[in-house]
Amino acid sequence: MSIASMVKENLYAGKFSEMFSKVAVRVRPLRADEGPRIVHVVSDKMLVLEEEADSRRDVLRQRRLNEKHYVYDRVFGEDSTQEEVYEAVCAPLVGDTLSGIAGAIFAYGATGAGKTHTMTGLMSRALNHLFTSIAESDLPDAYERDIDINIILQRCRSLDESGTEIWNFQHEVYV
Fold first, then answer.
1. 171 pLDDT higher than 50
2. Which residues are CB-contacts of 6 (< 8 A; sequence separation ≥ 6)?
3. Do the annotations mark residue 115 as ligand-binding?
4. What residues does ATP bind to (predicted)?
């Protein structure tokens, strides 16, 4: 069976993860130099953001609620693991990619929010999952290995098929 026919068969059978955007939030632990926590995870889908103490003294804001509730497709608390985030957010996309459907994950947030930490964990697990699945498949040579990975502020290196290093650099890449 060709990859194209496998994609068509899986698409019509509904075997792909949901085909739309999802938003997940990961709350990182507070550092010692930060003030009190104002973001609280309520459930795996909701978090609450408290207003900062300075804005509560504002006369115009006194009658407003001091909390804002936000609902997402998935919320991870500060005790979440890289593996937990990967399994919930990234693993379904890797499965779809193996069946010919493209997927993308990106991180957005303020400096120091934990984007690089989270994405590094997702990237290493996704590549391991991808290449292990290809190697263990019935048709490992049927997959086209044309991978475009955009990395920002990461150490990069490439190995040829024998494991010999082709290039190695640490550079900032703008995508």
1. no
2. 99, 100
3. yes
4. 109-116
